[in-house]
Amino acid sequence: MLRLVVLISGGGSNLRALLERCDDPAFPAHVVAVGADRDATGLVHADEFGVPSFVTPWPQYDSREAWGDALLEAIRPWAPDLVVLSGLMRLLPEGVVDALAPRLVNTHPAYLPEFPGAHAVRDALAAGAAETGASVIAVDHGVDSGPVLARERVPVLPGDTESTLHARIKPVERRLLADVVEGVATGRIQLKESA
Q: Which EC class, in a word (predicted)?
């Protein structure tokens, strides 16, 4: 059974979908803890599913590295097999990536390498793209630049707003994340150390 720690910053809709999947006894993973970089509203999902949670508040640290060290200290006791960034809106310091990679994955609302960064849906609309997508990647030191583990196209429809397009991307993102977690748990997806 794959042990997951999920890190969030916001409402945790992807987290909730993953908790629901992990509730199925046939699913080969379970969430052992949920962490956040602030008092995120999504922590309520952890409470609802009886999963322990922790907060490592970004503003309490004088540097990214100090915050990263504290975050690692909060994660380590849970001995996760995989750490999932699910809407964590904070770049992890190099030391955190080094400590957790390659067993560190992130969801992204675009068909990477297209539209990396924090405003992927807005950027796709601004570019006039006919389609965008959703991706799950292994995290590296870049911004949404790690190896793609799964991705799928999502069409941009006439009249789409950032909100309507994101609403159509989210279910795809959730499905891809569950598929990647299952793939890692069963050995179908191999996470490789970087060279």
A: transferase
pLDDT tens-digit series, residues 2-60: 999 999 999 999 999 999 999 999 999 999 999 999 999 999 999 999 999 999 999 99
pLDDT at 195: 47
**Binding site as annotated, residues for (6R)-10-formyltetrahydrofolate:** 64, 89-92, 106
Which of 30, 45, 108, 166 is catalytic? The answer is 108
Domain extent, residue 19, equals 1-100
Q: Which residues are annotated as a binding site?
A: 12-14, 64, 89-92, 106
Phi, psi of 160 (to 5 degrees): -60, 140
* 3-class state of residue 142 by DSSP: coil
Alpha carbon distances (Å) from 25 to 28, 30, 52: 8, 9, 19
**Active site includes 108?**
yes
Instruction: Mark whether 51 and 123 lie in a shared domain.
Output: no
